[in-house]
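Memo subject: From amino acid sequence to C-alpha cells
Keywords: amino acid chain, backbone geometry, C-alpha cells, three-dimensional fold.
Body of memo: The sequence and its C-alpha cells, given next.
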Amino acid sequence: MKSVFVTTGATVPFVPLIELFLDDDILNSLINHGFSKLVVQYGNAPQDLVDKLMAKNKTFNPRLEISGFTFKKEFIEEINKHDLVISHAGTGSILDAARQNKPLIVVVNPALMDNHQLQIATALSDKNHLISCPKPDKDLLLAALNETLPTYEFERLPPPNGEAFSKLVYARAGLVPKKD
C-alpha cells in the first residue's frame, strides 16, 4: 500500500495547502499514481476544514484512505511510514523529510516573511533534493504529481556538518573554540 504524508505545520498550519487536498482532481491523481493512503498533519487548523478533509474519506475510501492528526512527537517515524512527502516549505520539515531520503514535494507559503520559503525551496530544488511548488496552486501541484514526480531523480541530502556550523558560530561571535 503506497502512502502520502502531508505536513502543513503544527503551530501555524498552512491552510491553503490543506485545502488542496479537498480537491477531487488532486485526490484522483494520487490514486492514479498508485497511492491508497493519505495522512495529513494539519496542526491546529480550523475544525471545519479538518471536518471537510475527513469527509473526503467517505467519498474516496476504499480507493484512498484519508486520515489526519494534529501533532506527533515521532515526526521522523511518521515520515518513514510513507512513500511520498508533500510538505510546507518550513526549513525543519524540509530537512526532516529530505534526510529520510523520501521523495519530497514542497509547497511554498508566499505570505511568510519576505517569501524566505521560496528561496530555500528553490535552492534545494535546483540541487534535485525536492520538487518545489512556488505557491499553493492546484495546477502546480498536479504538474508536480503528474509530470515531474514520475521521472524525477532525487539527490540525497548530505548529512549535517555540525563542525562547520560550530566554527561559523564561534567566528561570528568572536570566540575561540576549546581545544580538546
The CA atoms of residues 164 and 170 lie 10 Å apart. The chain has one domain: 2-173.
